[in-house]
Automatic annotation (TrEMBL), chains A, B:
Pfam family, one: TetR_C_13
InterPro entries reported for this sequence: Homeodomain-like_sf, HTH_TetR, Tet_transcr_reg_TetR-rel_C_sf, TetR_C
PROSITE patterns according to UniProt: HTH_TETR_2
Protein name, entry field: Transcriptional regulator, TetR family
Record organism: Actinacidiphila glaucinigra
Residue ranges of DNA binding: 41-60
Gene Ontology MF annotations: DNA binding
Gene3D superfamilies: Tetracycline Repressor, domain 2
PANTHER family the record matches: HTH-TYPE TRANSCRIPTIONAL REGULATOR LMRA (PTHR47506:SF3), TRANSCRIPTIONAL REGULATORY PROTEIN (PTHR47506)
Length: 214, 214
């Protein structure tokens, strides 16, 4: 995955420089995830990462460059998770069920929502020039599901009437909306209900070939 | 709907006082909707509503009281819409289809997301003491769908295997998640796909009685 790192060119950076940059990003991502973009200021990032103000501005000259790098950081994590072997390209209904189960049964904390979704909902209201980065990341996310569903269709395991692009939207929307409701209710139930309904809807399009195979 | 107004007791207020308070709320709600809670400060509200600083602090002594009143304001609007005659208590599959169509075909702008959802996603990251207000509003919203679905079930138009509470979560999550994705993509397609999939999933639980009736 080729992603814009949102900061200066990384080539020529020393190992130590990259480590410092990584530490800043890790702390900034955590602060933004738990407190939001707006409440995350230089002072908080500086203190949390244990660096000087000049170090911070050396790697991230302004807030936009820091937020852009955090988007990329979270995108690598979310997209990387979806591309992991665990889901094997999302080519079976079981992969989607496992994906839903992961959020519901794994005990993964939902209190702060989706790392990308909660960032996105705040950013779309700001004038930070990072909307295109977000649009691209969510399009890539949709592509992962769409491509998997298209392969299921090609193999005859998903009915020809199914629309992979639409179903991909349904899956991500269920996760994003369910996460928001779970945060508000402080209860995983809305997320569980939304994800399982999405998988159930997808299952209705699977053919007996899929059942036979798995 | 009994709602906490989030500010001082309204009894004894003059008509002029209520009008001023309403004007402040209207402008604050609009600012929060388009710019977010964090970026909406006293100065912006004051200038937008054309009032003095002392008037603002008279009606809303702090940000929490203002945000709480805006939550109630948006809740009245969203819950009132769902309780309108147009949907007749959400007792037929057609009411749900019309609900989805409203967001998709009405040309209603989706650029700023759901007035309650976008507010909620920002508030859950702040330390404003208004989470319980949000939790209550979303529970009321779920209740509107749940009650309608239960009546469909009682009338034999929704299969006994359907879980009204779960389906209500699915519907609201589809709208919230779809709205977020539509905002990010600047395209109504993800919202359309999420809402129509949710209605389709609901339709799968309707019995022939429902079809016969409508």
């Amino acid at each position: 995955m080729q992603m814009n790192d949102g900061s200066r060119d990384l080539r020529g950076r020393t190992g130590k420089g990259l480590a410092t940059r990584g530490r800043i990003l890790e702390h900034a991502a955590d602060l933004i995830y738990t407190r939001g973009v707006h409440a995350t200021n230089n002072e908080l990032v500086r203190r949390s990462a244990g660096i000087s103000g000049s170090q911070l501005s050396h790697y991230f000259p302004n807030k936009e460059s820091l937020v852009r790098a955090v988007i990329d950081w979270q995108a690598e994590s979310v997209l990387g998770f979806h591309r992991s072997e665990r889901f094997a390209g999302f080519e079976t209904i079981e992969a989607y069920q496992e994906w839903a189960d992961f959020y519901v049964v794994s005990g993964r904390p939902f209190e702060n929502g989706c790392s990308l979704g909660s960032l996105a909902s705040e950013i779309v209201k700001t004038d930070l020039d990072v909307r295109d980065d977000l649009t691209r990341v969510f399009a890539e996310w949709q592509d992962i599901f769409r491509a998997g569903l298209e392969r299921m269709q090609d193999a005859g395991r998903l009915d020809a009437s199914a629309d992979p692009a639409q179903l991909a939207h349904m899956l991500i929307a269920a996760y994003q909306g369910g996460s928001l409701l779970a945060q508000i209710a402080r209860d995983v139930a809305p997320l569980r209900d939304a994800l399982y309904a999405a998988v159930e809807n997808l299952r209705a399009y699977t053919t007996s070939d899929d059942v036979a195979r798995t």
